[in-house]
Amino acid sequence: MISALASAFLLFSAPSGDTVRSAKAPFTTEPAELTLKVDAYGFATSKVLVRNNTRDTVRITGIKGSCGCASANVQQPIMPPNGTGMVLVMVNAKNADDVRNAVEYVITLSNGTTLSTLVRVTK
């Protein structure tokens, strides 16, 4: 039986025959979830980093929110190997009836990968 600690790591065989332990996903968002407070103008805004943990340069090609109250744009589209890109997410909470408690943003990368970030909004 594998211990809980050992099962937390993925094992890969390196070309030299050594075993390499890695818990990193190829791509991650930081933060994966966040809670934003609405400002005096009715908006909640934040930057989200997209981390590229691979050896390839990858581009952020799109981002889309799960409701009409959500908007976003790509600030830093190109992610070098082991580098980061950045997106700006914004929720329009002016009309409380139209805003959900949480918005999911789906980020699309040039290699076909999709990632998501969950944004919770509080007043």
Keyword list:
123 residues, disordered N terminus, Immunoglobulin-like, elongated, mainly beta, 4-stranded antiparallel sheet, 5-stranded mixed sheet
Question: Would you mind describing this structure in some detail?
Answer:
The protein is mainly beta and about 120 residues long. The chain contains 1 helix and 11 strands, in the order H-E-E-E-E-E-E-E-E-E-E-E. A 5-stranded mixed beta sheet has the order 4-11-10-6-8, with no helix packed on it. A 4-stranded antiparallel beta sheet has the order 3-5-9-7, with no helix packed on it. The radius of gyration is 18 Å and the shape is elongated. The termini are far apart. Residues about 1-20 have low confidence and may be disordered.
CATH architecture, please? Sandwich
The rounded distance between the terminal residues' Cα atoms is 48 Å
Number of strands: 11
Helical content band: under 10%
CATH topology: Immunoglobulin-like
Number of domains: 1
